[in-house]
Amino acid sequence: MIRALVITHGDLGRELVRVAEMILGPVPGLTSMSNSGKAAIDITAQIEAWLTDNPTDDQADPAGGHKKLILLDDYGGSCATSAQLACRQDPDSAIISGVNLAMLLGFVTWRDSMDFEQLVAKVVQKGREAIIQVGGR
Amino acid sequence: MPVVLARIDDRLIHGQVTVGWSEQLRPDRILLANNAIAADSWQKRVYASTVPPDIEVSILPVSKAAASLADKELAEERVLLLTGSAQEMAELVRIGVPVSEVNVGGLHFGPGKRKMLPFVYVDGQDLKAFMRLREMGLLLSAQQVPGGREYLLDDDQIQQMGEQF
Q: Which of A39, A70, A83, B116 is 20 to 30 A removed from A76 (C-alpha atoms)?
């Protein structure tokens, strides 16, 4: 199973995951983390722990591999720097910034039917497509 | 180089610095003094990539950061000087970096640290470095972002906090 971690400032990530689960029901392997109150070194350590935390069902699903997707709220913050530092030695991970609800829904929809590289590209595409001027001039 | 802000922040270069303070102070350069990152070109690139394109960035070991601030060719540059710890900032001031005020922007919780302010957790070493900065005549205050609450860190507060260790 491909796992995803949403890392954000404040409670943004927790709420995004909560709302995604409100729409889709419980999503295994989708979790969130906040940088609130944490030193950069601790954020990095927590991400590293998540990267190496292989749930037992992975043995039953070797095809899904141990691929991991990190979604960030903003490029350039402590979350982004820590994610890059943590993933430096991990060949099975990808990092995307600019997380929105459409990306989480897309991740859940396609994670079992695409290979990892395709999925990452698809999530980026869905995130961009979700930004639309809806009204006003 | 005039130092427009000398900041202690264990998150180093991040949003509060590149957006918050940089929008307000418009520095020409962000100078991060950090031995470990300066020695690792990959990490240097990660941190440098988070700085907006209109701001220059230097990541140097502490000893070289002081020399770079004295460089005559860069005399006109407005610099935002950053360290990840009070100890490194005290070292820079001791070497002779010309600053009169230090901003404590964020020291987060860690093993053996106690809460001084909501965003400032310290141990005995941090407090010793605060006192060294005070003894060298610097004004010490804590503030996360422009417009945020500013807390003056005076000798009494630092000493009182020191009694907990």
A: B116
In a domain, A137, yes or no: no
Residue A134 placed within a domain: no
In degrees, rounded to 5, the angle at the alpha carbon of residue A27 between the alpha carbons of residues A24 and A33 is 115
Q: Pick the closest to residue A72 from A2, A3, A13 (CA basis).
A: A13
Q: Is the ipTM of this complex over 0.85?
A: no
The token pair at A49 is: 């722990």
CATH number at residue B153: 3.40.35.10
Looking at the structure of chain A, the number of domains it has is 1
B45 touches chain A (CB under 8 A): no
Chain A residues in contact with B82 by the CB 8 A cut-off are none
| Contact call for B11 and A39, based on CB within 8 A | yes
CA-based nearest residue in chain A for residue B107: A39
* pLDDT digit string, tens, across residues A66-111: 899 999 999 888 999 999 999 998 999 999 999 999 999 999 999 9
Give the number of domains in chain B.
1
Secondary structure of residue B109 in the 3-state scheme: strand
